[in-house]
Amino acid sequence: MRKLMLTASLLTLAGCAGFGMPDPDPAQAWIDLDSKQEDAALQALKVDDKAATDRRYFEVQPGSHELKVRYQFAVQPTNIGPTSEPLWRDCQLSVKFKEFNAGQRYQLQAGNIGFRPWAKLYDQQQKVIGQGTPAGCQST
């Protein structure tokens, strides 16, 4: 069941990717999403408590914003104990940044260390400019 849910999420993302990405609006900041793990999914959820318009990326007005993402990943048996099945985690992370600039591209990366998810926000020069904080996780 857990594999089925994650597979469905990954297929949904793959299906959306087939439609192509829109051209970035030069009057806004663009934030790409990137999962650093195989068998993981990263989705845009909210910008400042408003639902994201597309789960593949964020596009925001210049200024300060809070981004909320959903990160689904597998915790491998080597991090759990003597079991043969990975444990699937479904987490939300929040990233706040005060200086989004129009026409700039940013990248939000997520990964995990064992049960703990992490997220980092990078600018165009690949400099870390923000870190995510966990906003709740559950095992699926």
Automatic annotation (TrEMBL):
<keyword id="KW-0732">Signal</keyword>
<feature type="signal peptide">
    <location>
        <begin position="1"/>
        <end position="19"/>
    </location>
</feature>
<protein>
    <recommendedName>
        <fullName>Lipoprotein</fullName>
    </recommendedName>
</protein>
